[in-house]
Design goal:
The protein is mostly helical.
Length: about 180
């Protein structure tokens, strides 16, 4: 669906699901700043972590009589990133275009180098620039979601920085 055709308003549930997907993409890109592992290895670790968290959170709610923790059969419920088209499209677009995405970021971080950015800010910018260039989400939504991720995982100053960088990217893309 093109940006022009994306005029339909999303329900609150759809918005929440896309926010969850963006946050997971951000987390994967953030992890990539620490590792040279393949995306498959990172996704596999992510899946294993989700299973462990699910097992312990489910069992914390309802422990067995003898207080032994038993595996849950709920491992396949909820959002599975590796089976989501939006998630995989954005991750693959970043992997295939990493140099171009980073060059775009470098162009707009006046007075900074990409190495000086915090890993959180870099990961948020990488995902947002990827979504702007290769996704179909409106620019306003992409910027807003990136700013919200920055506020959640970084500082208000970083959120303003991200907003400024992405505003400049969008302005140049429109020209």
């Amino acid at each position: 669906m093109s940006k022009e055709n994306a005029k339909r308003r999303l329900s609150e549930e759809e918005i929440r699901r896309f926010r969850e997907k963006r946050e997971m993409c951000f987390a994967i890109l953030f992890e990539m700043t620490f590792s040279d592992d393949s995306i498959e290895e990172i996704l596999d670790r992510s899946k294993q972590s989700r299973v462990i968290v699910d097992i312990y959170s489910d069992n914390a709610k309802s422990k067995t009589d003898d207080n032994n923790i038993e595996p849950s059969d709920k491992e396949d419920e909820g959002f599975l990133p590796e089976s989501d088209p939006f998630f995989m499209k954005m991750l693959n677009a970043f992997i295939e275009n990493k140099d171009e995405v980073d060059d775009t970021i470098k162009k707009y971080i006046k007075g900074w180098t990409i190495d000086r950015l915090s890993r959180v800010t870099l990961s948020v910018l990488r995902f947002a620039v990827t979504e702007l260039k290769y996704g179909s989400t409106s620019e306003k939504v992409v910027i807003n979601e990136a700013v919200e991720l920055s506020k959640k995982y970084s500082t208000p100053q970083d959120a303003r920085f991200v907003n400024g960088v992405l505003g400049s990217v969008v302005k140049d893309m429109a020209e």
